[in-house]
Amino acid sequence: MKHSLPFVLLTSLLPAVAFPHGFGIAKGTHLDAALSTTWRSEAAANTAQAWQIPGLLMGGHALPAERGPGLDQAILTLTHHRDDGLYALLKAGSHDGGDFGLEHAYAGWRSSGESTGFAVEGGRMSPMFSPLLHDHPAERLYAESSLLADAFWGRHLEDNGLRLLARLPADIRLGIESWQGNAFPATPGETLHDVFGDITFATGGVTLTAGFFALEASAVNRTDNRYDSGHSHGGTTITVPDVRYTGDTRIGGVNGRLQWQLTDQQTLRLRSEWMQQDVDGNIRESTRLAHLAGTHRGMSHAFEFKAGRHEIGLRYDSLSLSNTVSGSGAAVLAPLAGLTTTGNNPQKLNVAYARQILPGLKTRIEWVQDDSTGQRHERWLLGFVWQEQLWMRH
Length: 394
What we know:
By secondary structure, the protein is mainly beta. It has helices at 5-13, 147-153, 330-336; strands at 28-40, 68-81, 86-95, 101-110, 117-125, 159-168, 172-179, 192-203, 206-222, 232-233, 236-237, 244-261, 266-284, 289-307, 310-326, 347-358, 361-370, 377-393. It has a 16-stranded antiparallel barrel. Strand 10 (232-233) and strand 11 form a beta hairpin.
């Protein structure tokens, strides 16, 4: 479990690359704030039990939204980028009504090249291997996260790590990341590494980006700790069976993004991502043990159109899950861990409309058809998103 295929792959590439500029921190000092709040007509799942996608070991921050008003996200971000290439970021925030705290704190240095170059970053941050990892409620059209993000890395992922970035001629980008393993699907003290890359083509008003990633994580006695802090729904405290996983998780994927600037006021965006997760390890509880081998595939497609102050979009997510649980404890542990599938692929459809009503403030209405648990849930969402730069110094 300690050997990392992604690390070996990119290490072999490093002598041939010249690393990219940093990933979006503008020069100067900036203080930005964002907030997303949403009212829901129905809860995302049965409030008397843990939310479970049948066929998956759950974890991370993948908690269901509750009925009524809620805070999706609140963030405050401070960035500083010096002329000599040194930069840093501090971000404090809250997700899904959780406690407000420090989420990101990292520093980096970038070379002076514009079209080609390299950068190194270290500290507490989010990985860059998938666009869905940086798809947050205050920044996207949809209030709710992708089903793929909930299934494969517990909605959002932050950890202490080191990142190397490369930008090559022809607008090619490569990266390698190594993490302490404090975040799902890994466990503290074990490994979590990934590599990623993409290439961008631009002509006229059309921009096309195609990318890939590979991730490997190891876990020892990992549990579903989403409800450990006493998280409850509707006043009911949720408990989950103490089933532990020890083994490896490997995820690979490809993604594509197309943006077409039709006019000065009209933009069409198409986004697609496909990934496969392979798990190989053991599950156990106090008296039983079984072996788990699973192959899980997911896809996410989105169509979005923006015209002036108006934006509409549709996103469809689907999972295909297959597990083999063997050994003396398989008959008990498979259903106890939620690994028994229903025969229907978990799916989720979001249809959203947003309108900019003031500078930095927009309203959003959304309809969700959620078949992620084997039972259909439909709900309406109404909310507001505020984003603003509070202070800037060049």
